[in-house]
Amino acid sequence: MSSTTSNGAPRSFGVFKPVGHVVISFPEASQALHARQALADLGLPDDAVRHYSDREMLSQIDEDIAHASPIAAVGQEMNLVLAHRALAARGYHWLVVHVGNDDQATRVARAAEGCGAERAQHYGHFIIEELIERPGDISQVAESPDRGLDAQTPSGKETEAATLKKGL
Predict the structure, then answer these.
(1) Which residues of 39-56 are buried (b: 16+ CB within 10 A; e: fewer)?
(2) Within a domain: residue 9?
(3) Which of 61, 49, 42, 40 lies closest to 98 in space, CA to CA?
(4) Distance, first Cα to last Cα, the chain
(5) Which DSSP symbol is given to 122?
(6) Which of 119, 78, 75, 77 is nearest to 97 (CA)?
């Protein structure tokens, strides 16, 4: 069950699921703006890239959580929403980029990573692929709706990722 909200955000079962897009997170607003220019330099049109501030993402996520169908918890969509919320609460900014294929998704992720992106997820019809490798040697563990998304941190929680990055 797909739909969109008044701001055009694609939804599936009441949660953000932008199939055919790469969702990219940045610790700083300036990094997202720099990446937007880098993506334009790749030839992407302006309307292929949408910027979400931390506050906009929090608002969207809170709306998702309030209106999510129980079916949304079956896959990883809800886990990603909760991981995105943890980052947005820490002030992260986002670019959501429409891509035509896997190769373009990879090029978008590499350009964004060069601008400081920490996460880039390519949303396919059946799979959501992480395009930026996490540093370190922490093995990923099984993910589930109950356990949530593995952030590849010692605790497995996304809230810990920013703290580790800053060396706190």
Answers:
(1) beeeebeeebbbebebeb
(2) no
(3) 49
(4) 42
(5) E
(6) 119
As a whole number of angstroms, the distance between CA 156 and CA 55 comes to 24
Question: Is residue 47 domain-resident?
Answer: yes
Domain harbouring 137, CATH code: 3.30.70.3450
Residue 49, in any domain of the structure: yes
Element housing 87 (H / E): helix 77-89
Q: Does 4 fall in a domain?
A: no
pTM of this prediction exceeds 0.90: no
- Interatomic CA distance for residues 95 and 33, integer angstroms: 9
Strand segments (E) across 13-168: 15-16, 21-26, 49-52, 93-98, 119-123, 128-130
C-alpha 17/C-alpha 26 separation (Å) is 19
pLDDT tens-digit profile, the chain (168 residues): 334 444 455 544 445 668 899 999 999 999 999 999 999 999 999 899 999 999 999 998 898 788 776 665 556 677 888 899 999 999 999 999 999 999 999 999 999 999 999 999 999 888 889 999 877 655 555 544 454 555 555 445 555 555 555 554
Number of domains forming the structure of the chain = 1
Cβ–Cβ < 8 Å for 93, 26: yes
- Residue ranges making up the domain that contains 112: 15-165
